[in-house]
Design brief:
alpha+beta, Beta-clip-like, 3 helices, about 15% helix, globular, binds zinc ion
């Protein structure tokens, strides 16, 4: 199965929040970096399964991105402006898009949204750049 959406070089490496996905080369703002792939399941099934890798497409469908083929699952959360990517729903497929120019070696992040944040991140404390760097 061909899951490649681009020829961009990406590296899975250790980051502050466990494993993360890093740019292996500079990425231009607006570039489609990677698709969030996985099994398409109904909202009911998603509620039954639970887990951290569920990506809601709409009220009916969710992608279960638990599969190892889903490299996009390594993209960690960052709050709001600290994120350099965003997830876009294009006709029911989810793509991680560069929100700004990204340098080689930078970690890729997007804002997971408040629902995910409250359930999975808040209990441990957020470790994104915006939350861990001292306020000026
Ligand atoms: Zn944060």
């Amino acid at each position: 199965m061909n899951t490649k959406t681009s020829a961009l070089k990406l590296d899975v490496k250790k980051s502050a929040a466990g494993l993360g996905l890093f740019a292996g080369e500079p990425i231009k703002k607006g570039a489609k970096i990677i698709e969030y792939v996985g099994e398409k399941i109904s909202a009911d099934e998603a509620n039954k399964r639970g887990g951290k890798y569920l990506f809601e497409i709409n009220s009916k469908w969710t992608i279960d991105g638990t599969t190892r083929k889903n490299t996009a699952r390594y993209v960690n959360h960052a709050c709001g402006k600290a994120a350099n990517c965003e997830a876009e729903n294009k006709g029911g497929r989810i793509f991680i898009i560069a929100k700004k120019n990204i340098g080689a070696g930078d970690e890729l992040t997007y804002d997971y949204g408040s629902e995910y944040f409250d359930e999975h991140i808040k209990p441990h404390g957020c470790r994104c750049v915006s939350c861990t760097s001292p306020r000026s």
